[in-house]
Design goal:
It comes from Enorma phocaeensis. By secondary structure, the protein is of the alpha+beta class. The chain contains two helices and five strands, in the order αβββαββ. A five-stranded antiparallel β-sheet has the order 1-2-3-5-4, covered by helices on one side. It binds guanosine-5'-monophosphate and zinc ion.
Amino acid sequence: MSDCIFCKIANHEIPSTIVYEDDLVIAFDDLSPQAPVHTLVIPKAHHADITDGVPAETLAAMVHAVEEVAKAKGLESGFRVITNKGADAGQTVMHFHMHVLGGKSLGEGLV
Ligand code: 5GP
Ligand code: ZN
């Protein structure tokens, strides 16, 4: 999608701090981190959100990328994965992404 900021990051058209990349997915640090570690995992192909026909192979690649992020960031003591879909969840970028959050105790709120 030509006007999608995450498609541009996936295509290396705009810079990001890349943590992991393979043929299907890319992981990069969030611009406005909400935890000491806040990395986004996205499919390279454009899907609006988790319900937008994401192939099983791509979902598996994203889970693998989460593992790679956890290793690269030293999240041995745990982390949280969140994906927002739609207005009630506060989704602001309409390209499917998983937030990987960690680097401190995240507590028990949400969730
Ligand atoms: P959402 O609210 O849609 O689940 O999360 C979108 C996330 O993308 C936010 O945490 C926001 O900080 C991040 N973000 C938005 N634009 C950019 C960008 O250009 N580069 C990076 N690295 N992160 C971005
Ligand atoms: Zn996109």
